[in-house]
Amino acid sequence: MAGTLDLNSYLDREIMCSCGHKHYSAVKKIDIDTGAVKRLPGHIKDFGYEKVFIVADKNTWKAAGADAAAELEKAGISYDKVILDYDEVIPDEHVIGEILAAVVPGSDLILAVGSGTLNDLCKLISFRMGLDYIIYATAPSMDGFVSIGSAVILNHVKTTLDCHGPVAVIGDVDVLSQAPMRLIAAGLGDTLGKYTCLFDWKLSRLINDEYYCEEVVEMVETAISTVMKYSNEVKNRKPEAVKAVTEALVLTGIAMSFVGNSRPASGCEHHFSHFWEMKAFMHGKFPALHGTQVGVGTIIALYLYHMLEKQEIDFAAVKASGFDKDAWIREIKEVYEIAADGIIAVEEKSQKNNVEQRNVRLDVIEKNWDKIRQMIHDGLPAVKDMEDLFAGLEAPVNPTQIDVSLEELYQSVIYAKEVRPRYTVLQLIWDLGLSREYAEKTRDYFSA
Ligand SMILES: [Zn+2]
Ligand SMILES: [Zn+2]
Description:
Layout: E1 15-16, E2 22-23, E3 29-33, H1 36-46, E4 51-57, H2 58-74, E5 78-84, H3 93-102, E6 109-114, H4 116-129, E7 132-137, E8 149-154, E9 157-162, E10 168-172, H5 173-176, H6 181-208, H7 214-230, H8 239-259, H9 268-282, H10 290-309, H11 315-320, H12 325-336, H13 340-350, H14 355-367, H15 369-379, H16 383-391, H17 406-415, H18 425-431, H19 435-447
Parallel strand pairs: 3-10, 4-5, 4-6, 6-7, 7-10
Antiparallel strand pairs: 1-2, 8-9
Helix pairs in contact: 1-2, 6-7, 6-8, 6-10, 7-8, 9-10, 9-17, 10-15, 10-16, 12-13, 17-19
The protein binds zinc ion (2 copies).
C-alpha cells in the first residue's frame, strides 16, 4: 500500500529545525501497513534481539498475538509469553505484578500486543527491567504509542509515570482494520482533537508569544488532512483509512517528543477529557475511552470557538473586572473534591488567573480581536460537520452519551482549564469574562 506519510524520515536522528530547536525522537522504526506481521521477525532480528517475551490479553492474542508468535517461530526467534485472562485489563498493581512474575529471565525484548493499556503496562515494565520494548498495535485507539509516559492506576488513582518509548511501532493494517469500531472511532476522536489543540497553540503564540514550531504544526496538520480525506471510509474499515488514522496517532506522538511536551497533541479538548475522567474515577465509575472523550471535547471546543467568532466585547469593562480568589478556592473545592489541593497548587505556581497578567493578555486580544475571529472562521471546521462525522461511526457526540452529566459539562467549561497551566480557548473565555455565560449556553445546546 502506498505510504500516506513518510514517518520513518522523522526517526532516530536530530533534526535542526527552523524554530531554532533540535528535534529528536528515539523511536527507530515504524511499520504500519498490510503484511506487517510477516515483517515483524525481520525487524526484531535487525535490532539484534534474540529472546522475546510477548505480553497480550486474551482478545489481542486471538486477534494478533498468535499470528505474530507463529511468524517468530517460523523465523527461528525464541519467545515466551503471558496472556492476561481478563475481558478488560485494568493497569493496576495486580496486573503489573502478574506480568513481572511471568517475564522469563534472559528475555531481551518485551513485545506488547495490544493498544493503550498493554502499551502502558509494557512501557513501564520494560523500563523498570532495563529492557527494550516494541509495540505491535492491534487497534488505532489513542496517540500514546510512542509517548514516554505510562498511565497506570496505583492505589486506585490514575498516575502517569515517566518511562521510555518503544524501539518500534509495528501495526498490520489487516489487524488494525478489524479492531472493534468503538476503538477505531476513539482513535479518530483523538486525531480530530488536533484541530482544536493546534488552534489553542496558535492562539497562545499570538496572545502569550508562546514557543511555537511551524514545522511540527504542519506535520500534524498534514496527518489530520490525510485522515479527513479518508474519514468517510473509516466506517467501512477501509485499509487506507485505518492506516491514515493509525499513522496520524503515531505521528502526533512523535510531534510531542519533538517539542518535549504535549502541546502539539493536547489542548482544551484534552482538558475536558482529564476533567471528566477525574470525576469518573472519584465517583467509582469507569470513564469512557480517552479518544471518545476527546472527540466529544472537540465538538464542545468547536462550539465555544464558533460562539467567539460572533462575539462583541466591551474590553474596558472586562479589564475593570476583578478575580475573587477566596470564592474561586471554595468553588474548586466543591468541583474538584479530593483533587482540589493539587489544582490550587497549579494556580499558585502558574498565576493564570492573576488579574494583572490577564489584563496584559487582554490588551493583545483587543488589538487582535478581528484577526482572532477571522482565524476561527478560516481555520476551524463547523460543529455540525464534526457531529455528523462521529455520528456516522455511531460514536458519541454528546457528553451525556459518555456518562458526563449536564452539571459536569457546565463545570468543565468553567473549571477544566484549571487542570493544567496551558493557554486554550477555555482560558480565553475566562479572560473575556464569558466562562459562565458560555457554560450555560453549552449546557443548553447539549440538553436540547
Ligand atoms: Zn521546530
Ligand atoms: Zn489524546
